[in-house]
Amino acid sequence: MKLLGISGTIIGSKTGAVVQQVLEEAKLQHPDIEIEFLDLRDYTIQFCDGRDPSAYSEDTKKVIEIISSADFYIIGSPIFQGSITGALKNVFDLIHPQVFRNKVMGFIATGGTYQHYLVIENQLKPIAGYFRAFVAPSYVYAHTTHFNQKNEVADPEVLGRIKNLANEVVYMQKKLKVSELEILN
Q1: Any idea where the NADPH-dependent FMN reductase-like domain is (predicted)?
Q2: Which fold does the domain 2-184 belong to in CATH?
């Protein structure tokens, strides 16, 4: 099982740092899973315009391929102007909805105000619902004050949420796989 962490921004490092912490915690708790980190900063992704995925640039096709090959996800976004990034929304637009169907998603958001955690509830969870994905009940919201000078999460409560989310997504995905096998047999 491959858990893919997506840092859904092309600027900054806090969101990616939290996504990576969740991935590392998931691997620590469940050494049998494979983890991969996708940082949108590393790719030049074209805007979705409805064309066949094979007609996009190599970077865009690579991102589609990486996301499509994962079994479940940790998806993070900084919150700008009360919303997820345009880069992450564009990625969601590029991926066929069937790719996410019946897969587990866990969410992370970072921001400068404490109210921005609501973006997870009001934007990310409904997007997952559209995709017919399963959403982990927990999520991580990290305010800028939760980080130390090295951009590492230092707040004990947020670190606890990171551990909780890591465990939940793996637990849910494993249970779904068992249920899937039972249905097939």
Answers
A1: 1-144
A2: Rossmann fold (3.40.50)
